[in-house]
């Protein structure tokens, strides 16, 4: 007499013991042999699109054609399968039934008996499990009743296996995509950087020295000089080239989110944190993280970054345990971090940690010999993107016009100028040479950007930004947020503006007793005291 409860419990443990359906089939074969006549177990499912059965796993003591994985069905198979309602069916003579006969004929065995368990989930057919034995008329209703006891565990195992296989397939697909993307990035990094033998020669020498190491690198240079390209070169020339390369612009993330973005958060750490999220540092494990505009980091995040550099560990927002990370840090900024340290806007200990190996990337006006090569490169690439049939040539005098310009926007500005000229040429006359007629001459650009006096005093960038923000506050009466506020006038997020004001030492809110502005005349700064407006405006 079979103890059905004991039979069910032990069988269920074996059926649900693994997501590998092949292991499940073997466990079932080993266990059920003691209860029913059994030479093998086969698990399969019907593919409606191809009208075929797909074999997921087969374990057998009989010689079978196990190389075959997909078995095509006759045209009437879909209609016959719609009639299947029973949970377990006995097929003691397979030649009398079209679908079992087709399957077993393809596998090389016809003289056999089968118990077939049809699995369903939420009204959808999952698949079927064939318990088979050599010879005819071997199975009885009692055998079918025993197998029917295991209907629910087999449905769970089949559903889990199919979903697991979908996840594996998606993972493989993403892995292929990632490998392809890394290959493309590697090819891009292997291409020679324009100017590496000219104005960027010293930069590339520094890159070759530091790339094989794990030392933090600080890239310094004006906006548009190509700091991200140099960071790419360092990563893909390093032993970490097969690891992740994560980029983040520190100035583009609101202050309230940057902790979570960089270091991740635990479930329930704050309102809306419905699950654990891994930060950029964890995603960059065994690779490199590029922190662009690192000078915009708030003071609290600077402390966390210092811990990463010193202890090689992070702590998620809302977490209690440190997480070890192996990440190389490449930082970049267009600002003067040394001045920010003196003003107390940037931590001195973090500055020392980041400034181990600084690389200064010269602006384009200091390496004008690279301009002809850059123009040729941009024309060639942008012509391909715009589907121009030929690479246009430059009109006489065009190169001299470009060489005479000071390029305050650096390589990015040059690229935009070339692209704009190609778009205009494509619309008007694709055959004419590029003249850059609409481009300002050297004299015009100098007068327009620097005034009539070439040798007039130039303010440091942070000071110029500070003056600009102060002027906006004066115009808006101290209002920061809301309609007609300084944030709207400057077209930036209000939180970002407050962060910049704190960084630059511009008081606001309760800290502000008097609005102070500064005017510049004849190269000298003159303070202007503005009476403080109503306090409610300051905090808005």
Written description of the protein model:
The chain has 540 residues and is of the alpha/beta class. A hairpin with an 8-residue loop joins strand 10 and strand 11 (323-324). It has helices at residues 4-15, 21-32, 77-82, 98-107, 141-148, 151-190, 201-210, 227-236, 258-263, 280-283, 299-311, 337-342, 348-354, 371-385, 398-403, 410-427, 442-450, 461-475, 486-490, 494-504, 535-538; strands at 40-47, 52-60, 70-72, 88-91, 112-121, 124-134, 217-220, 245-249, 287-292, 313-314, 323-324, 327-333, 357-360, 515-521, 524-530. 42% of the residues lie in helices and 16% in strands. The strands form four sheets. The chain has a six-stranded antiparallel beta sheet. Strands 8-9-12-7-13 form a five-stranded parallel beta sheet. The chain has a two-stranded antiparallel ribbon with strand order 10-11. The longest helix has 40 residues, at 151-190. Mean pLDDT is 82; it is low at 445-456, 513-517, 520-524 and 526-540. It folds into four domains: 4-165, GAF domain (Beta-Lactamase), CATH 3.30.450; 213-360, P-loop containing nucleotide triphosphate hydrolases (Rossmann fold, 3-Layer(aba) Sandwich), CATH 3.40.50; 365-450, Helicase, Ruva Protein, domain 3, CATH 1.10.8.60; 461-538, Arc Repressor Mutant, subunit A (Orthogonal Bundle). Helix 6 (151-190) crosses helix 8 (227-236) and helix 14 (371-385) crosses helix 16.
